[in-house]
TrEMBL record:
<dbReference type="GO" id="GO:0005576">
    <property type="term" value="C:extracellular region"/>
</dbReference>
<feature type="active site" description="Proton donor/acceptor">
    <location>
        <position position="201"/>
    </location>
</feature>
<dbReference type="GO" id="GO:0071972">
    <property type="term" value="F:peptidoglycan L,D-transpeptidase activity"/>
</dbReference>
<dbReference type="InterPro" id="IPR002477">
    <property type="entry name" value="Peptidoglycan-bd-like"/>
</dbReference>
<dbReference type="GO" id="GO:0016740">
    <property type="term" value="F:transferase activity"/>
</dbReference>
<feature type="domain" description="L,D-TPase catalytic">
    <location>
        <begin position="122"/>
        <end position="241"/>
    </location>
</feature>
<feature type="active site" description="Nucleophile">
    <location>
        <position position="215"/>
    </location>
</feature>
<keyword id="KW-0378">Hydrolase</keyword>
<keyword id="KW-0732">Signal</keyword>
<dbReference type="GO" id="GO:0018104">
    <property type="term" value="P:peptidoglycan-protein cross-linking"/>
</dbReference>
<keyword id="KW-0808">Transferase</keyword>
<dbReference type="InterPro" id="IPR038063">
    <property type="entry name" value="Transpep_catalytic_dom"/>
</dbReference>
<keyword id="KW-0133">Cell shape</keyword>
<dbReference type="GO" id="GO:0008360">
    <property type="term" value="P:regulation of cell shape"/>
</dbReference>
<dbReference type="InterPro" id="IPR050979">
    <property type="entry name" value="LD-transpeptidase"/>
</dbReference>
<dbReference type="GO" id="GO:0071555">
    <property type="term" value="P:cell wall organization"/>
</dbReference>
<dbReference type="InterPro" id="IPR005490">
    <property type="entry name" value="LD_TPept_cat_dom"/>
</dbReference>
Length: 241
């Protein structure tokens, strides 16, 4: 059952999230300057997974307005809302606890968004430090996803000891599989391969920290969106940094 949450002030105002002026004078990879907005005091207590209601819906709409991917603003704080909150917390450099308390509310107030590394073209970027996947067009971040990349741990595959690393570099999607793709380390959902056996793919477990064998994991529904968007078609650019 959802916890009772105090009703706050006005509903969320949809905000523009692009514009060259927002990028002037800042280093690539830094958090973007705050988007101007009325104070975002939608609730007075914490929101977390399992909650529901109007305050959750306003939270979801604010995240969507800022570019954090969500499938819907339905008023239910489920797994996809948790992923969007993690993505915001990663971009803000705060604890990745998935709870919308005072510090996370401030990040929402401030309109925190990550900055792209690339400046031209359509690029999907993987920010290893912050564990974010960004859909970027001409330097403007359009969509923001939480991701989980190589854990850095050693593992054994086909009789060899390897290290779980997602290599940095600029790559091109060269193969995809529109299904669960079985492999020696498990099945990958609708993978888009960009570096030998390394892919962006959907998975049932996407923790807020590096945990994969080298691929970039997103949720299953997020991967469906990436397929339908056309931004990860064959020959698309993937920048890992």
């Amino acid at each position: 059952m959802a916890r009772a949450v105090a009703v706050g002030l006005s509903a969320v105002v949809a905000l523009p999230v692009g514009g060259a002026a927002a990028h002037a004078g800042a280093a690539p990879g830094a958090s973007a300057p705050a988007l101007s907005a009325p104070e975002f005091r939608m609730f007075s207590s914490e929101l977390r997974i399992g909650d529901s209601g109007a305050e959750v819906e306003r939270l979801q709409q604010r995240l969507i307005d800022l570019g954090y991917w969500l499938d819907a603003a339905d008023g239910e704080f489920g797994g996809h809302t948790l992923h969007a909150v993690w993505a915001l917390q990663k971009a803000a450099g705060i604890d990745r606890d998935g709870i919308v308390g005072p510090v996370t509310r401030k990040a929402l107030d401030d309109g925190v968004r990550p900055r792209a590394q690339s400046t031209s073209g359509d690029v999907v970027e993987i920010d290893l430090e912050r564990q974010l996947l960004l859909v970027v067009s001409d330097g403007e971040v359009e969509k923001i996803f939480t991701t989980s990349t190589g854990s850095g741990k050693t593992y054994e595959s086909q009789g060899e000891e390897r290290v779980a690393v997602t290599p940095k570099g600029r790559y091109t999607v060269f193969r995809d599989v529109d299904a669960w793709d079985p492999g020696p380390l498990g099945s990958l959902y609708r993978p888009k391969y960009f570096n030998r056996g390394i892919a962006i793919h959907g998975y049932t477990s996407v923790p807020p920290h590096p945990a994969s064998h080298g691929c970039a994991r997103v949720s299953v529904k997020a991967m469906d969106w990436l397929w339908s968007s056309g931004r990860l078609d064959i020959h698309s650019t993937v920048l890992v940094w």
